[in-house]
Predict the 3D structure of the following.
Amino acid sequence: MENDNGLAKLQLCEKNILRAFICACEKCGLKYYLIYGSCLGAVRHKDIIPWDDDIDVAMPREDYEKFMATGQQYLPEYYFLQNYNTDPEYLGCFAKIRDSRTSFIESGVKTRKMNHGVYIDIFPIDYYPRMNIKKFKLLLFLYKARLSAEFSSAASAKMRIVQFFAKIIFPNLDKTRRRLNALVSNTQKSDLTVIAFGTSLDESTIPAVWYGNGAKAQFGDIEVIIPEDYDKFLTKVYGDYMTPPPVTNRTGHSTNIIDTEKPYTEYMK
């Protein structure tokens, strides 16, 4: 897969979106970090991971909300800042920047009438909640189950039961998304942060000082910002992160269509 020309085109498209995102952040004076596999790529490969098919960035909640409010005006017109306010059919409680000239149609949401262009993910970084943590985890699980019930991809029998009851408890999808967003957007500062929509809650619970002011790194020919203590960050998420995984584990998203030269609207017809 590493030598696949289609993957190379996809990665180039995503990196171009990243350039535009970074430029917008610099113009607005907003803070961001490459996280997860993108941070790993910057550290281990000095570029995107050769077999990776997405780019993940995160922003402190305050910066994230400012970008949601003003970021679109700093992006080229063919890039679309997608969240549940700008694209009601979109199910996520984090944002994406999509290239509307392209197609990245994932199997779980292929029937939804939303922007399906190639994208990068933008996650908000929130402070770890001060409320009862068991209650927090339960509500987070139920809200996410309600959202996942809208995906067309298959779930386990146990999860389908949970989704069934979650739809009964929370029948209104839009209210559920807003409740979920309110649950995690804790404005009280603490020593711990969490990315509630990324990996598991335990993996994404990070001391705020690990992010710090960020560290500069190379991502191909792009200078990027990664967490200041990226070694601790990557070790928390991946363990021995400098050792690449077996070839059989080098997988990407489950997609129906990836096309960097044709807009998703052509396929949605």
User: Anything to note?
Assistant: The mean pLDDT is 92.
